[in-house]
Predict the structure.
Amino acid sequence: MSEEIIIAGFGGQGVLSMGKILAYSGVMQDMEVSWMPSYGPEMRGGTANVSVILSDNRISSPILKEFDTAIILNQQSMDKFEDAIKPGGLLLYDGNGITRHPERTDIRVYRVDAAAEASKMESSKTFNMIVLGGYLKVKPLVSMENVMTGLKKSLPERHHKLLPLNEKAIIRGTEIVQKIQEV
Amino acid sequence: MSIDINEIKKAENLVYKKSSVLTDKVMHYCPGCSHGAVNRIMAEVIEELDLQEETIGVTPVGCSVLLYNYIDIDWQEAAHGRAPALATAIKRLRPDKYVVTYQGDGDLAAIGTAETIHACNRGENIIMIFINNGIYGMTGGQMAPTTLEGMKSSTSPFGRDVARDGNPLNMTQIVASLPGTSYVTRQSVHTAAAARKMKRSLKKAFENQKNNKGTSFIEVVSTCSSGWKMTPAQSNKWMVENMFPSYPLGDLKDE
Amino acid sequence: MREVRLMKGNEAIAEAAIRCGVDGYFGYPITPQSEVMETLMDLKPWETTGMEVLQAESEVASINMLYGGAGCGKKVMTSSSSPGISLMQEGLSYLAGAELPCVVVNVVRGGPGLGTIQPSQSDYFQSVRGGGHGDYNTIVLAPSSVQEMSDFVELAFDLAFKYRNPAIILSDGMIGQMMEKVEMKPFKKRWTNEEIEKYCPWATTGKKKDRERNIITSVELDSQVFESFNHKLVAKYRKMEEEEVRFESFQCEDADYIIVAYGSSARICQKSIDILRSKGIKAGLLRPITLFPFPKAELNSIADRVKGMLSVEMSTGQMVEDVRLAVEGKVKVEHFGRVGGMVHSPEEVVEALEQKIIGG
């Protein structure tokens, strides 16, 4: 098994930490993992993206041109990464702020309206965990138990009081993710 | 009455002897240079305080680069201007040792300005000895940051022109204003009395380091007969008349 | 029990430093390596192992703090990125001249000048050719994973003390910023001052009555004496070349074509090899782990049985010169690499090999 993922959105959406939690979940499941961010000025607003690889084998290049999955959280990222998905791959996106929806017909497309849901949950911080829940529903590569351990390992101890809220958000994500198209 | 030489050499007639911390190596300094006197005072203080095994010295680039040949303690020779950086690490990694830097004006007040100010500002618990003779002695008498207005050097052959060359830098005054320094003084070694005062200052600086008081900074207003192109006697006179008004002797800070 | 953590390369450097008994870290912030000092400050090792961590006023001060600490026989290190490493070159020359062991981590970014904060491998020459003034070499290790970032800290110190010479860990923004699994090493005790006196009899530890004073210096005004000192240094570097060459090879045994790449480029090229093999092209990867000493002999012997080599590096062509020197003209050697902070994709490497070596 090898899963190559790009997560892309705005800085401040929790793109990097979502990738980190996913990677840590992979570590908990004894997988090989890599987490490669775009770094620099992007961190201070603007776009942010991170590629995460989960694999049963040693990972070669952390730099990728094509991905098995793209998790897309704004229009710029949709424009940049829709074409980088391998045929048959997965595009998961949040419809909030998306003006041009995915056009490819040779990929699986799922939608998770996490921004709207996070506002219903009255906690914008849960946004990225709702997205993660949606992804795990479509591709359950890591067990929920390992995700929770990964989450705990990723969060500094002073934030551990937020674990139940994050778990709730992940579960909510698994519930609200919708299929747009399969191939 | 003839005097037997062995009579004179009797132990009870001994009034002065070379410090045991000084080596037998002949010093390379020019006649009339202040370095030799300051080196001797350092050795005497280290001997009298019984700190030969406890002291690590840092030598600069300049005429005193080979200071490690004369004083019998462990030494590190620093790149130009960087002695305070070396001393910072030495003292922090060996807080049980006494650490002394020895630098000239080009080293401490020009190329090493940042290291000097930041070591003093952090209050590194070290002694910094600053030989200020207003000239680059080793490289042949070029203008230094402390060269006085109108003073001639090989790179200010018509005298330092403040409008062109900038002002003389009073480093000791600057470091006295920093909270990290506890003892900042300006001394000289041109007379026996001055040398004795310098020795008392250095002892106090070692005492301060023992008591973790932060940086002790001792400027020694010095002569450079070769660079100044004067006899030793002329140099001393010139220093008193010209250097002291700009760099007045005495304690700037003693906390 | 195995302790496995997900860490950035820069964080791994910091953790490894504490665990392998480093006495002092002296640094100055610069992207993309600031996490090294940030992690150290966060972990407060002065409260646990007694390791000193100090933010210096400049890279110039940092490297000279290393000189002072190393002169006392302490294990001292710094980290920086390309522009900061340039500022350290004077200090490195003095450290090499005074034969002092220390470790310098360079998380390379693109240059010249202020350049870019994105990854690059354009400091190869500066690292393997000495970098500062005078005839000297530093040991250069090139990690290609976060695990190696962690492991090479201790290895670099072992080599630095074995040879009394500075050692450089030549990483880049990619390895520094990416996260991977790291198996943590157990904590090792720092050397006591008594142990230092035993292992480093040359160090300035305070002159004991029973020994001559120790002098750490690089100055020697007698040219005849200094000439023999230069020869002594060279003999040391030749010994490193005989005993310390490290490399890794992937599928080189039956290969017709060899890609030579180090660090992050080597990771990318592993995938290129997979792609080439799937196309029926027998390609292999030779990854130098030590860039100085360089695996000359291995490359020379591989050159006898292959049709061509491609040196892949994020520079306009630096390591390629060493590859050419190593193969002594036996096979064609070309260079490929993106620069300016751009990172080549595995597919671009495949294309370059096909065009420059196979088709060329």
In short: The interface with chain A takes residues 4-6, 31-32, 117-118, 173-174, 177-181, 264, 267-272, 274, 343-347 of chain C (CB under 8 Å).
